[in-house]
């Protein structure tokens, strides 16, 4: 029995609320998907024998809940699906029960806490008054431009070629970039498996999102070009340096091919480089190839310390004012205290020392993963924080995730990163940074044992 559209007489009172609840159930059941167009107020009212006012009130309620969005001149569309708020990591209430390979984070040890304690002690002695008294972003953050430039140069950029904003990490920068490049109803394309918050954030901003075909080198340029030919694409969102769920490192040639398509169809580029200079000998950022159309962001959070939420967003100078305004109304400015710590560390060499330590730690963990998973097909990137394990043998993604959890190991399902409901690349992301060396080894042994065995369906009923 289908849920949507409801039949006349099936709705309870108040009818507007019952109609809204019915549509939500249809979304949860998969009968309605993100991007589906809904009937006009008048047509649905006629079909259900309701007043136009009742349908309008139901639609208003659904807009308030964030389930649908109305676009002037285009209609009303479903904007939130079942997977929009699905996270790849286990909730805080559960993570103590598992060896946690589900959350992406750098290696953190006691020395990181000691470094932050030393920094805070030093700040207690010589904290600049502007760090806590300046209320204007330009006044509070201008003095950090030199350090920001130094870090971005280390990421392979020429910051003088673009505008610069300092942000509270990558999520803030990503939000500002999306808000700046596109308006409600615009189309954003990306990898078919992309950042787990991108789909939900795009829906909240009223944007349309479409995943593109990928191969061993990332987005297929022909698929990007075909999308541009079918529709007006506003921007392409890329994670070209191993950060994407499948741990793909786009080659210099593939980056150039994608830039060529973007230039041909006048498409902007959003480049998520959250790991920054963590990986050695990587190709130059896309922003270094196409500074005139690329919004690039990175931070110190992933490659230095989880709690150091301080980052950088660069953009073409023509968009600098627009990006600054959007940052102002959503975040006001990067937190000066975090900026002070981060920039001190960049200037005095602490950031580089911690970066090199992280490179070494993740390099060793990748060596452990390669040894334990030997003979099992998987994908990784140099010094990356995770590996991608395609669903092995007879396993489905869902079965593998469930069996791993039954054995005390949490991994991230590929479906949490899917931009549509029909992605065929099933697999799991296995993060290497959150656990100790001992639990890392133990958890990887569980993963390897499962991958080399056949699924036991009976276990799924436990």
How would you describe this structure to a colleague?
It is built from 17 helices and 16 strands. The longest helix has 23 residues, at 350-372. The chain is of the alpha/beta class and 462 residues long. It is 41% helix and 15% strand. The chain has a seven-stranded mixed β-sheet, with helices on both faces. A four-stranded mixed β-sheet has the order 4-15-16-14. Strands 1-3-2 form a three-stranded antiparallel β-sheet. Strand 6, helix 9 and strand 7 (208-212) form a beta-alpha-beta unit. It has helices spanning 15-28, 41-48, 52-65, 110-126, 129-133, 137-141, 145-154, 170-181, 198-204, 221-230, 252-264, 286-289, 320-330, 336-348, 350-372, 397-406, 437-451, and strands at residues 37-38, 68-71, 75-78, 99-101, 163-167, 187-191, 208-212, 214-215, 218-219, 233-238, 268-272, 294-299, 311-315, 386-390, 409-413, 427-431.
Note the total helix count.
17
Lateral strand order in the biggest sheet:
5-13-12-11-10-6-7
Write down how many β-strands occur, each being a DSSP E stretch of 2 or more residues: 16
Provide the low-confidence segments as ranges. 458-462
Coarse shape: globular
Topology:
Blueprint: H1 15-28, E1 37-38, H2 41-48, H3 52-65, E2 68-71, E3 75-78, E4 99-101, H4 110-126, H5 129-133, H6 137-141, H7 145-154, E5 163-167, H8 170-181, E6 187-191, H9 198-204, E7 208-212, E8 214-215, E9 218-219, H10 221-230, E10 233-238, H11 252-264, E11 268-272, H12 286-289, E12 294-299, E13 311-315, H13 320-330, H14 336-348, H15 350-372, E14 386-390, H16 397-406, E15 409-413, E16 427-431, H17 437-451
Parallel strand pairs: 4-15, 6-7, 6-10, 10-11, 11-12
Antiparallel strand pairs: 1-3, 2-3, 5-13, 8-9, 12-13, 14-16, 15-16
Helix pairs in contact: 1-3, 2-3, 7-14, 8-13, 15-17
